[in-house]
Amino acid sequence: MINHLLLPGPRVRPPERGAVGPLRGREIRGDPITRRGLPAQRRGGQLHPPDQEKSDVVHDLLAFLAKRMLEMNKQKQQEIKGFLGWLEGYLGSKVDDLTPKTKIQSYYEHDYDGLLAVLKKNRKLMQQ
User: Fold this and answer.
1) Could you tell me if residue 48 is inside a domain?
2) Whole-structure pTM over 0.70, yes or no?
3) 46, 76, 103, 128: which sits with the fewest CB atoms below 10 Å from its CB?
4) Do residues 87 and 116 lie in contact, with contact meaning Cβ atoms separated by under 8 Å?
């Protein structure tokens, strides 16, 4: 269903500015023609061009996806904070005291062996 919404439709060139199109003012299947030469759709007693309706659907989809991305990013940040807090408690030292701390803080971008190598390198700083 989403693929259907994102596929571009046929492109209709709007008439030149000031030009009078051959369909302007006429009706196709009882629908009035908009100033762009496209049939208008009735919704709530008002006329809406088909492009406006597609634009509304795309806008709503993008707004939904943006909201979902923000929620997921918030969850990710909470997971990172929770893991690093647990790691500090387990190791007995702050992550900021370890080197390279950026590799530990971005542990989700590296494999397990990379994180383990950083922790082994910092063995002396960890409380026993």
Assistant:
1) no
2) no
3) 128
4) no
